[in-house]
Structure formats: structure tokens, C-alpha cells
Amino acid sequence: MNSSVQLIECPRDAMQGWPVLIPTDKKIEYLQELLQVGFHTLDFGSFVSAKAIPQMADTREVLESLNWKESKTSLLAIIANGRGAEEAASFMGVRYLGFPFSVSPTFQQKNTNSTITESFERVKEIRNICSNSGKEMVIYLSMAFGNPYKDPYSEGDVLHWAMKCHELGINIISLADTVGLANPEQVNRLTKLLIKSLPDATIGVHLHSTPGNWKDKTAAAFLAGCQRFDGALRGIGGCPMAGNELVGNINTEWLIDYFTENGIDLGLNNIALEKSLEIANNLFGSN
Q1: Gap between the Cα atoms of 143 and 107, Å rounded
Q2: pTM for the complete prediction?
Q3: Which of 249, 213, 246, 248 is nearest to 230 (CA)?
Q4: By CB count within 10 A, which of 138, 180, 212, 258 is most buried?
């Protein structure tokens, strides 16, 4: 990828809440094509409870079938505890382990069945696993822009936990607009705050948006200095543990158009991108 902008494609986020079980061979076909596009990172699957997220129960099988060695794209797996981290770290092809750390106590309990304090202890454990296995940890600060549960929220709390994670040696921190509550001004302000406060860390955004506000949110983060953006082809996705109507991921096609309009060459393989879109249309419907 010949760009300072890191574009993270998140098919795992698109697939995890899909109501119809996607066959393993179809997942492999889709992910294999995505590996040819030239994304910085592919959030491909998760090593979590199959009971909680049945759509991801075949992540090990999928990973074992992927030809990742010839791709410049790195693989990221989501994990929720030490057991999942150990399993993910056992695979040579996985470079990043992502952990959803919520600043909302209610959502942390829903998502990982743990308190914020317990979750931070998990962060420490997973960070050690990453260090011992040569992996990199990514922290997703879930509900970073507010929550629908009326839990106390402040941008100061977000900064506090970001700094606590960074003190452990975690250098990639992504602000997650988990249920699409953020407004552009808030995205700009909070992203700028973290970038200024943690100048040697990579601060990213994982935004969920409607077709009407994605561009303003994206521009807000970009103008704040953010260079790591998550998206999902066709704009599908959302956490099934959020317990409310999902607001999808920002459509990766929109992000590509935005950066192209701003003179940024993402260095993508357009043929592979078109093939990926065809597969996505077959998996998720063409409308």
C-alpha cells in the first residue's frame, strides 16, 4: 500500500452479525480475494465464543485455508480473552490481535462478559501474549463517542484509558463509534486530542455511519490528523452484542473515493477490488 493512509478492511465486522450462516468455503473465497486488493490490514475473523458469535465459529478453519504469504496485507483477529489470544497468536499468519475495550461498563459486560477493571487485566494478559509471540495488539475503544445505555461518559475517560493502554506498550488505538452516535465535531475533537496526547501512537477510527453523515465524520477524523481508517465493503456490519438496531460500517468504496478526491493514492488493485465487490454482492445481496 503506497500511502500514509492505512485502510483497514473489516469483513469480520460485516459477517459476524449476518443473520444467515455464511458457508466456510464462501468466506475463504471472499477473504482470499480481499487479500489481493492491497488493504493495509484485513480484520478477517475472531477467536471468541462460538456460542456468542456463531458466525465466527469457523475462524480457525478459514485461516488454515488462506494463502496469506503472497499478500502485502496483514491479518488481524479479534479476541476477547487470554484463551482466544493464545489461539490467535499460535498462527503465523496473524499479525495483529484486536481487543474491544469499552469505556461503557454496560457494553463491556455485554460484549466480553467482564467489568472494565477485569477487562483491563485481560488487556495486560493479552499484551504479554503478543509480546511473547511477536504479535502486535490493537485496542478498539468501544463506545468512544458515547453510549445508548446512559452510562457516564466523558472524553477525559476515553483519553485516560487510551493512555493506560499506551503505557503498556500498545501503540495502535482505534476510536470506535460502535453504534453510530458520534457527530463530526466530536470525532474531530477527540481524535485530535488523542493524536496530540499520544504522538508516538497510531490513532485510528472505526466509524459506523449512515449514508448521510459518513463523509463529514471521515473528513473530521482526517482533518484531525488521523491516518488509520476502518471500513467494510458495502457498508455492512456492527456489533451484535450492542443490543440495538445496528448502524453499519462506513462503506470502504466511499472511503476510497474520499481519499482519491483528496489526492491520496491508496495503491489498490482495482481488478481485485471489483472481484471482491462481486463476491460481497453474492454474500450479502446486491441491493
Answers
A1: 8
A2: 0.95
A3: 249
A4: 138
Q: How far apart (Å, rounded) are the C-alpha atoms in residues 68 and 81?
A: 25
Q: What percent of the chain has a predicted confidence (pLDDT) above 90?
A: 88
Q: Of 101, 61, 51, give the one whose Cα is nearest residue 81.
A: 101
Beta carbons within 8 Å of 215's beta carbon, 6+ residues apart? 254, 258
- In the block, cell 486530542 appears at 193
Q: How far apart are CA 141 and CA 179, in angstroms?
A: 13
Q: Which residue do the cell numbers 468512544 mark?
A: 144
With a cut of 70, say whether residue 178 has pLDDT above it: yes
DSSP per-residue letters across 93-157: TEEEEEEEEESSHHHHHHHHSS-HHHHHHHHHHHHHHHHHHT-EEEEEEETBTB-TT-----HHH
Could you tell me the three cell numbers for 243? Answer: 443490543
Asked if 1 and 8 count as a contact pair (C-beta separation under 8 A), the reply is no
Q: Which residue has the cell 453523515?
A: 213
Determine the Cα–Cα distance for residues 94 and 105; give it in Å rounded to an integer. Answer: 29
For residues 242 and 12, what is the distance between their CA atoms, to the nearest angstrom? Answer: 16
Q: Strand pairing of 74-79 and 202-207?
A: unpaired
Domain ranges of the chain: 6-284
Q: What is the pLDDT of residue 210?
A: 85
Q: What digits encode the pLDDT tens for the residues 14-42?
A: 999 898 999 999 999 999 999 999 999 99
Angle of helix 116-133 relative to helix 105-112, nearest 10 degrees, comes to 50
Domain 6-284 has CATH 3.40.630.40: no
